[in-house]
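Page 42, continued from yesterday. The earlier attempt failed because a stray header line got pasted into the input along with the sequence. Redoing it now with the clean sequence only.
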Amino acid sequence: MFVETWNRHDAKAFSSIFAPDADFTNVFGMKASGRAEVERFHAPLFATMFRDSRLNIEDVSSRQIRADIGTVDLRWSMSGARDPKGNAWPNRNGLISLVIAAREGKWLIESMHNMELDDAASAEAQQELQLATTA
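This time it went through. Structure tokens are written below.
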């Protein structure tokens, strides 16, 4: 539902997957608190920067902490976005970290932190460094 509502660029539908008192933080560190604020935050962005964006989830990992609480990490890629100044934004990659909870008879996002990831070469270089120092 996350990807579907994003790719429809529908702020109301997107915000509906958040808990009423959820916390949201985007890649710039900007925050919104509560479902209504998540909707208000995204409405102008879906009309401008992300109007033609296409979000894809590349990998999902999750962990159930309790029967009603879990975490989910979503590695994402995006095409078709524009930067805040209106310029074409090159394809992007990132990681969304979610805390989810069973509420209102469904799983809802309690907290979301989104981050943009640097190019894969930097991550691979760090991994090689870590492997070399543990050998």
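Notes: The first strand starts at residue 18 and ends at 25.
Reminder to self: strip header lines before submitting.
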